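pipeline stage [seq->struct] | target=Arabinose 5-phosphate isomerase | organism=Nelumbo nucifera | residues=393
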Amino acid sequence: MIKSRILPYIYKVRCEFAYYTGIIREFSNCFITESSLFKEHRHTFEPRGAKMGSLPPSPDIFSPPKETQTQINPNELLNLFKSQQKYLNFFFQNLDLSQTLTFTQTLLNAKGTIFFTGVGKSGFVAQKISQTLVSLGIKSGFLSPVDALHGDIGILSQYDLLIFFSKSGNTEELLRLVPCAKAKGAFLISVTSLEGNLLTSVCDMNVHLPLERELCPFDLAPVTSTAIQMVFGDTVAIALMGAKNLTRDEYAANHPAGRIGKSLIFKVKDVMKKKEELPVCREEDLIMDQLVELTSKGCGCLLVVDECYHLIGTFTDGDLRRTLKASKEGIFKLTVGEMCNRNPRTIGPDAMAVEAMQKMESPPSPVQFLPVIDHQNTMIGIVTLHGLVSAGL
């Protein structure tokens, strides 16, 4: 009974085994045929000189190219700087000062905004000069010659100046802007280097910047023309600064951030440590009892005061080392008042922070801190060199 049930399964397994065996045999025959074909023609697949079973040599196309570093010739570099100096001297020697004076006076008398425009590298110079005037408190701006013809020219008025910076004076974008700017009533000034250019014939005033040639060996790259444009514009800006009698405080008000502003605006009271942060002690205190106070406040000193908080002197970590070396065990009996400096450098709270830094660095020996006192010699703070540097001075 059991045998009759098992036989059909055995027969089925034999049939499936025969089926898969046939497939494997056909695959093996195919593989053998392909292997024989490879053996017959393996010389076409193997690199020359290679052996079966060995890796072919790495082709040269995968090896990284060898970089050759070109060295700058120091003599050629020096000659370039000398040539640039020669071209700049040509500018200074041939600049028409009467034109420059008239130009500068016109900018000084401007009732409206002084606008600059230019294309390419001259445009970048024009933007920079405009920003310099703005930093001096002079109303100025840059007008893109392309954007001007798409609405930006609306900012121009009859009281404004429009200064065209261009080496050739024949730039198409600038020439297209001229009639539109004239229609707005603006006063037009060209600053160019090529004589007899088109801009000079259509502007109300012209300034010629003498140019011998560009430093570029092809006399094309604007590397000398832009240099003289920058020198010209910045020099005129400083002339305007002097004519307007701009004070340091007014200049500082335009530079609230960065080292320029901080050095002109920050006062000692803005950067000093206040009373609760001060390492203070009395002159009768023992030196060894004040070591924690000396080292914990990050000032490198002790401020010796009386009961009314009047400054008596200072005791530094340098004083501690010298006292320890000289007195040895005797330091345990010494008071701060016996070893302190009773004539320290001090400064007031309303002094400029940069003045405090200069006072710290002055001879005969630099110091790292200044006690801040009022007119009654009352201790109100301390300013440290580290604090000034951290404030960006």
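stage status: PASS
auto-comment: The chain has a mean pLDDT of 87. The chain has two domains: 76-246, 268-390.
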